[in-house]
Design goal:
The chain contains eleven helices and no strands. It has 189 residues and is mainly α. The protein folds into two domains: 49 residues, Orthogonal Bundle (Arc Repressor Mutant, subunit A), CATH 1.10.10; 129 residues, Tetracycline Repressor, domain 2 (Orthogonal Bundle), CATH 1.10.357. The relative contact order is 0.10. The mean pLDDT is 92.
Length: 189
């Protein structure tokens, strides 16, 4: 049901989600949908939450990246690797989806709360990785790990605005500036 609702949002926006259409797409009755979701709004919110979370996931995960780190050079390489993965052309859609869900969350308090919980959980792992870097002398000690994790997330999601310009912004230059800014924010010297 959630996947059918996500597909409808992708194709026609939130307004295109209809319980009757979801039921028809799945070959079930409308009451079967209402058995799982109290109303259409609950279905749409659940779809947005799953859609956001799917498009936030990193490959490899922040925890897996840290298992590969043994030195300051490895640590910086892991940041570069994560940024390169994040900047890849196939990630444009993921950023676009996150921006769409964040927009919907502005008027949906339940969605906003769920997205906040997802972000806090995900970014806590990023902040923990920054703390590990600090404890090993690879990251400035005067940097707040949580603030930096949230800044990084906003900075990466913000790339969407440069991508929307249809060539007005040189994305390779954006990537270089972004990478320099990130590394400058963590380097202890």
């Amino acid at each position: 049901m959630i996947d059918a609702a996500i597909e409808m949002i992708e194709v026609g926006g939130e307004a295109s989600v209809r319980v009757a259409l979801v039921a028809s797409a799945l070959g079930v009755s409308e009451p079967a949908v209402y058995h799982h979701f109290e109303n259409r709004a609950e279905l749409v919110t659940a779809a947005y939450i799953v859609w956001y979370e799917r498009n936030l996931l990193m490959d490899p995960s922040p925890e897996a990246v840290m298992r590969m780190v043994q030195s300051r050079e490895d640590y910086e390489r892991s940041f570069r690797m994560t940024l390169e993965w994040s900047f890849a052309p196939e990630r444009v859609r993921a950023r676009s989806i996150r921006v769409a869900v964040l927009g919907a969350a502005q008027t949906n308090t339940e969605l906003r709360s769920a997205i906040n919980d997802i972000n806090v959980k995900f970014l806590t792992t990023v902040a923990d990785n920054i703390r590990t870097g600090q404890s090993n002398g690879w990251v400035k000690l005067d940097v707040d790990p949580t603030a930096l994790a949230f800044w990084l997330h906003g900075q990466l999601t913000g790339r969407f605005f440069a991508e929307m310009t249809d060539g007005h912004v040189d994305l390779d230059a954006w990537n270089a500036i972004s990478t320099q800014a990130v590394l400058a924010s963590i380097r202890p010297d």
